[in-house]
Amino acid sequence: MGIFDYFKSKAEPSSASVAKDRLQIIVAHERTKRQQPDYLPQMQQEIIDVIRKYVQIGSEDVQIQLDNTDECSVLELNVTLPDQ
Amino acid sequence: MAKIIVVTSGKGGVGKTTSSAAIGTGIALKGHKTVIIDFDVGLRNLDLIMGCERRVVYDFVNVINKEATLSQTLIKDKRTKGLFILPASQTRDKDALTIEGVQEVLEELSKEFDYIICDSPAGIEKGAQMALYFADAAIVVTNPEVSSVRDSDRILGILQSKSKRAEEGKEPIEEHLLLTRYHPERVALGEMLSVSDVEDILAIPLLGVIPESEAVLKASNQGTPVILETESEAGLAYTDAVDRLMGEEKPLRFLEVQKKGFIKRLLGG
Question: Which residues of B touch A2 (CB under 8 A)?
Fold first, then answer.
């Protein structure tokens, strides 16, 4: 660090710590996706197809997430229905 | 039975071949009979790094297709005793490798060698999966940079799910992190991920840290594995990494910022 650097603002976080934060988030996200069972995408598609028989929804309107805690696994299904 | 070690990374250009050449040579220097296999079919480069490009007659695909025997194909290293190279094919593509073919070659090599180093191609597709499938241990080569760290994590996922050990429910592949192209100065300035940052994210044991060094390019220009450059920091760091791979305790070195003169520091140079 040279004398010129002392005049710069100190508030900005270092680019390395930004990199670490971004990596921690994306890597955690990709790991949970990896641990999902293989049947999940197909199951999601079939659930969408069933709902579509009754309501018009897009594939983005259904979110499926599988959360594993120590004791049990929770399958979370989130369907956004269109406005009437 | 030989121990099969894959050198892999996901991302290209991080130093897989440099590391395969250095570590293979280091293991052979310790008196273990070692072969380094170039799995990068179509883009052969290990021969250049090892300086034996003009001695390639047959290649890995020839052996798989039974067009040549292993003893006709293996290139004996001229510098290091007990070290051999199995070059990749340049004219074929990755589909020329089959699980059965690779298995047969590895089994035959296993009878004769103590260590088999598999230099993986970049990517996460067939070629890379073939290189890691039979591995007992993996050296994940990573640069302190976002895309390399992310790709390393993806390759760790593949090691844990698509390898033979994973598929057969055996003891998982031993994982080792090798951090290469490390700039202590830039880490000190907060411009580069530190060793502990990368360790935190990938959460696998650290095998070594190779500092960015002019010696690496110089060694590859000359076709010498950089571990033989015993005056260079990179060479010594690889020697330490091999010692750790063999179970020795070695403190990390070359991670401190080198002291600069007063004027240079004043000007922030």
Answer: 265-269
